[in-house]
Task: structure prediction
Amino acid sequence: MLSNISMNRVAVSSGSRFISAIRLFSSTPITYKPKNPQNDAKRKLRREQAVKQRNKQAPESHPLYLTVPQAMRYLRAAEVGQPAKKTTVSILMTVLPERGSKPLAGSVYFPKPIKESHAMVFSLQEEVVAKAKELGATYAGGLELIEQIKNGEVKLDILTHAFATPDIVKDLRVIARQIGPKGLMPAAKKGTVSEDVEALMKESVGAFPFKQKEQHLSIPVGRCDFSDEEILKNLKAASEAIYGCQPPGTRKPNLIGQTCLSSTLGPSVVINFKL
Result:
């Protein structure tokens, strides 16, 4: 038999649980304090200003800043055991656009191409053929080169580009079946026929197109088997191309902020991109 005191305690305890349950399932409406649009706009403005101020700071003040040669030591160490030709060294930069500005876009001509390319040049002009060979064309020639291709004496599988001057285009029809399926048939519509073959080779063989996506811009600038000097030259070419592609007449150009250098498996290091 439970004493009266024990029974009272049980009753009180049961009653407390019952009251708690009632409170849990209360039908009293919950009121939310409405957001103030002005406060939200102010907070957003403060965040944007903080990001802009942070990206205006000198890269040397960042705790992860390194010079390019120092950064490459770490990136090469991170890629040990990997085939050097499969490691890509890239830059990733923050670009803060101004109101009404257009995304940065253009192309970079790298002094040291990232991908191996093999070009073939057709021309009846001896000076053009000589210049093409000087620029590193794998094959360059006129009617004799056409004859060699016709006889199967030229390795077409290694070629990545083909250019021609207008004076020889009609003579290429006899080898259209050999070079056409491999995408090596020069054509004015494709921009691979011109009197200035030197410009075509520089723009197409060593060039890399870039375009800003939202607030970022990423470009590969080399591989881990490149020397520090080659990486620096490619970085300088990329810097000149990006800073030089601001639309003319822009009062407030896009802010090019923090730039990081990284490799396929390596860390991301802050560098000074304005070379």
